[in-house]
Amino acid sequence: MGELLRWMVVLLSITSIALASLHGEEEEQDILAVIDISLSLSFSSCDDINCDNGGSCFKGNCVCPDKTTGMYCEVLENPCEPNPCYANGNCSETEEGYICECPRDFFGTNCDVIQSPNYPDNYANNTVMTWVLSGIPDKYILLQFEDVFEIEDTSVSNSCGNVSYNSVSNNGCYDYIKIITGDINVKYCGGAPPSPITAQEGSDVLIVFRADSFCSYRGFKLNYTHIDQPIPPVNPIISPSYPNMYPDDTYLTWLVLGRRGFNISFTFNGVFGLEIGEYGCYDYVMVYTNDKYCGNVKPQPIVVPTGEDAMVIFNTDDSEGSQGFNLTYEYQEN
Ligand SMILES: *[C@@H]1O[C@H](CO)[C@@H](O)[C@H](O)[C@H]1NC(C)=O
Ligand SMILES: *[C@@H]1O[C@H](CO)[C@@H](O)[C@H](O)[C@H]1NC(C)=O
Ligand SMILES: *[C@@H]1O[C@H](CO)[C@@H](O)[C@H](O)[C@H]1NC(C)=O
Ligand SMILES: *[C@@H]1O[C@H](CO)[C@@H](O)[C@H](O)[C@H]1NC(C)=O
Ligand SMILES: *[C@@H]1O[C@H](CO)[C@@H](O)[C@H](O)[C@H]1NC(C)=O
Ligand SMILES: *[C@@H]1O[C@H](CO)[C@@H](O)[C@H](O)[C@H]1NC(C)=O
Ligand SMILES: [Ca+2]
Ligand SMILES: [Ca+2]
Question: 52, 57, 101, 316: least surrounded by Cβ within 10 Å?
Fold first, then answer.
């Protein structure tokens, strides 16, 4: 096949020389071109080339399957190079790829998962655990929580009742997971996972889990990854489908980071509507403090003191909705 192709190309070139001569044009160049073509043809033949590892020859070059490189696909890429295991886990090659041997308290394919003891069963009372996730220069650590999240907050009854669906960071926690990185220093507890958290560029993340001596719950599980671009904070923060009706049974959180020397000023815009009933807020949005906002009257702007982080929480019950909210914020130097 290679041979046939070669002759066809040479024939074509001879024809073009003939045409060129007819027009009395630069014959020399065309002859050079023919020599060029036959030279490159002798190099681009697949006749004498055997590609290893299932590679196939095309125009004299091996096209290599995944995980192989080299002129003849003879070099197997090492799946452990660079080390895909986080937390200094040890990588070993296997038939299917690699496995990570993770340090104590790190789990997941790439040692990229951490969790409270016994998750998703109850953690033990009197637990303190810490993890350090090492940052990589120019990258951002992204933390993502699993849906099952239950850490004792102060709303539970003395008999270790259900955790509330409504917990706020930094207060109201008997047990907690604490995330410390750069300007972030927040505690989480309650019955719903925090939204994803992005650390600052290159920063390590310190995580502390602490349970007191009474009442344990299912705990938390999160994974982390190093990403190239931070996920920008959303602004405005709006309820799903706004200004159309938001869904039932929704719990969403947003973390707005404080900055030293700046207050954060939150303002509600446009339509505001959250279900209110005989017993208060059935659906609500909560900003920074424990104040729950609902009804149809837009709340006054909220100013968060300098340096403090602000949580925004949106919680709806299992029936009846309204139009929701549109919340913008800005940093004000003070
Ligand atoms: C990785 O291997 C080294 C040397 O065998 C060992 O000392 C270390 O404990 C291992 N690390 C993990 C996380 O298993
Ligand atoms: C990390 O957790 C999130 C939330 O549970 C999940 O959507 C995502 O697939 C997980 N990533 C990995 C690599 O397991
Ligand atoms: C606690 O939650 C469970 C499951 O969601 C529910 O069946 C039970 O009634 C709740 N108990 C209390 C005291 O609210
Ligand atoms: C934690 O303590 C409570 C009593 O406060 C007890 O009922 C519960 O079984 C303990 N949990 C575990 C996992 O030991
Ligand atoms: C910023 O917050 C401080 C402390 O709460 C307050 O005294 C100050 O008036 C605020 N500044 C602005 C511009 O709202
Ligand atoms: C939310 O309010 C801002 C400020 O008024 C406005 O620019 C934006 O379009 C609004 N977004 C929605 C979805 O209504
Ligand atoms: Ca507890
Ligand atoms: Ca509702």
Answer: 101
**Residue type at 310?**
A
Looking at the domain covering 116-230, what would its CATH class be? mainly beta
pLDDT score of 45 more than 90:
no
DSSP state of 231: P
Cα angle 173, 149, 264 (rounded to 5 degrees) comes to 55
CATH 2.60.120.290 fits 232-334, yes or no: yes
Q: How far is the CA of 268 from the centre of ligand 6 (A)?
A: 9
Q: Whose CA is nearest to atom 3 of ligand 5?
A: 305
97 lines ligand 5 (CB under 6 A): no
**pTM of the prediction?**
0.71
**Residue whose structure tokens are 């006749």:** 47
Cβ neighbours of residue 31 closer than 8 Å, sequence gap 6 or more: 17
- Report the topology of domain 78-111: Laminin (2.10.25)
Where are the CATH 2.60.120.290 domain residues in the chain? 116-230, 232-334
State the pLDDT confidence band at 167, using cuts at 50, 70 and 90.
low
Comparison of pLDDT for 164 and 178, the residue scoring more: 178
Q: Please report the pLDDT score of residue 30 as a whole number.
A: 52
Which atom of ligand 3 sits closest to the CA of residue 162?
1
